[in-house]
Amino acid sequence: MGRPAAERREELIELYREVQNCRRCPLYATRTQAVFGSGNADADLMFVGEAPGFHEDQQGKPFVGAAGKLLDTLLEEIGLAREDVFIANVLKSRPPGNRDPQPEEIEACKPYLTRQIELIEPRVICTLGNFSTKLLTRRQDGITRVHGQPQDHVVAGLPVRIYPIYHPAAGLRSTAMLETLREDFKRLPELLEAARPREEPEDEEEGSPEPVAASQLGLFG
Questions:
Q1: Which helix (H) or strand (E) holds 48?
Q2: Which of 36, 84, 133, 197 is deepest in the core (most CB within 10 A)?
Q3: Can you tell me the distance from the alpha carbon of 209 to that of 202, in angstroms, rounded to the nearest whole number?
Q4: Minimal CA–CA distance to 94: which of 22, 34, 169?
Q5: CB-based contacts of 205: which residues, under 8 Å, 6+ apart?
Q6: Where are the domains of the chain?
Q7: CB-based contacts of 23: which residues, under 8 Å, 6+ apart?
Q8: For 94-148, what is each residue's pLDDT tens digit?
Q9: Which of the 8 DSSP states describes residue 83?
Q10: pLDDT value at position 109?
Q11: Which residues are paired to 127 by β-bridges?
């Protein structure tokens, strides 16, 4: 860690442009547009879902449907907003009919997600559901078994705490699942606090770089 935020942001914008023109798998032919992700490019907390759905495919932004509204609510309940985090998916293109991602599609898109993590440098990655959890933990444990249990991993060469939870869509189908989601979300502030380094006195002449806020990433919505 430690690369200048502005430098990482410029490379993230280049990656965004590459994703928009991606033809690594057949999904490019059926998508309306690629969904790169959006939020704070210098976020300590990153969410990784499964794949864009209908509304995401139309708008080019992640989590803008009913599940996205629930995600916004869950963030608000713990004192956060989209502008504080970065949200992405395993796949950048919508699978037809919102079917599950195929192994070859995940493999084709994996370098983009790895690069996003490398450039954003999150300290905590909240994986939403089975696909992102299995991909980033490199384990086959299902979300039912591991949700709410932080795991320490190295991803893109960075030490990261991965925190698996259910996909917000599951909370729309069941009141009990919604309560489970809320309980898991409540642990995020303490996980973030524990993952942040202790602040050291800054050199008054050099100062410290300003965080890259979502407003500086107009390309990503």
A1: strand 45-49
A2: 133
A3: 11
A4: 34
A5: none
A6: 5-195
A7: none
A8: 999 999 999 999 999 999 999 999 999 999 999 999 999 999 999 999 999 999 9
A9: G
A10: 98
A11: 48, 164
Class of the domain covering 5-195: alpha beta
Interior CA angle at 68 toward 183 and 85, to 5°? 75
Judge whether 64 and 148 are in contact, CB under 8 Å: no
Q: For 64, phi and psi rounded to 5 degrees?
A: -110, 0
Radius of gyration of the chain (CA): 17
Task: Report the greatest alpha carbon distance in the chain.
Answer: 56
Give the other-Cβ count within 10 Å of 5's Cβ: 18
In one letter, which amino acid is 165? Answer: I
Residue with token string 């989209």: 82
CB-CB contact of 211 with 4 (8 Å): no
38 and 86 Cβ atoms separated by less than 8 Å:
yes
3-class SS of residue 40: coil
What number of other Cβ atoms are within 10 A of residue 120's Cβ? 27
How is residue 123 annotated by DSSP? Answer: S
Structure tokens at 60: 């080019």
pLDDT of residue 122: 97
